Amino acid sequence: MSPTAPTPVRPTVERVGLALGYDPAVSVREMAASAAAAERAGFDTAFFSETLFTNRDSASALAAFGLATERVTLGATQVVRLRSPLVMAQTAATLDELSGGRLVLVVGAFTAKHAARNGRPLTDPITTLREYVESIRALLTGERVTYRGEVVQLDDVGLNFTPVRADIPIWIAAASRRGLVNAAKLGDGVLLDAGTSPEYSANAVELLRRSCETIDRDPAELTVAQLVNTSIEDDREAAVAAIRWEVATKFTYASTPKAKMSVGEPTIDPDDLPRFAEAFARGGKAALQEILPERYVTSLTATGTAADVRARIAAYRQAGVTLPLVRPAAPHQLDRLLRTFGRPEAG
């Protein structure tokens, strides 16, 4: 029997989602409970970040989220090539069935970092991403698929069950100029990276708009979601201290700030990067965190009191982000975050 359609979340003027999965100390059960709490608070989305640092697995986590919730949209990043297109389509269709048609599949490019960490040969990220999206969409129709690409080769394969939806939304996770231009052509939505300022977001949205214009696509068709590192405390200094560790992680690979600077991230001073790299080589994340200027922490996040954070999220919205996905810096901040952005009338 096919699952019944979920009761839709009542539309709101300002959608907001809760992002989880980055803190290695938080278990899947705890994250599923947080997703359920976000649903009760009226949040639109419960999102899971499957990161390069191999914390929890996205498919397993979303299954837990799906069983713990009834209404919220569920999303997770999955890097292409780490699973085959057939397995990704199989997983997406299964999770969509389990959740009653609430899944958003968010795919990210397979980069040199992923290749090195997983012991796989590197293929062109843009070509690989495009071929995965095309072949996954074909597989989700439930039909047999033959696909002949440079990276993806499928020979008369298909799912052995009929997906609940053939049109599961596919968003593209993108951080660089090249990735954003490509994302506007491929995705039903775009996921902007965490650890960026509203000024970066505005530049990214402008790139998306211009890319849409080149293919006669209405930019309003794209959902523009963004992961936003968030730290709420009664004391501003305590909020900065709680999130400093996470901002430091954005500078452990040289390619990460480079990608953001290609879009026009004004916070990052290129002259600082050698000093950051030296600190990381000398003492790891702890040393990098210690020397990181406070302006990086406050500019690349939403940090401070509840009023500060609310104003900062408004700035991301003003930049063109239609769905901020707020990620708390510490588990104890969750209740305050839900109170700050939840709807009072939500049940």
TrEMBL record:
InterPro entries: F420-G6PD/mer (IPR050564), Luciferase-like_dom (IPR011251), Luciferase-like_sf (IPR036661). It comes from the Bacteria. GO terms for molecular function: oxidoreductase activity, acting on paired donors, with incorporation or reduction of molecular oxygen. Coiled coil: none annotated. Residues 25-322 form the Luciferase-like domain. Gene3D superfamilies: Luciferase-like domain (3.20.20.30). Keywords: Oxidoreductase. It holds the Pfam family Bac_luciferase. This is Methylenetetrahydromethanopterin reductase.
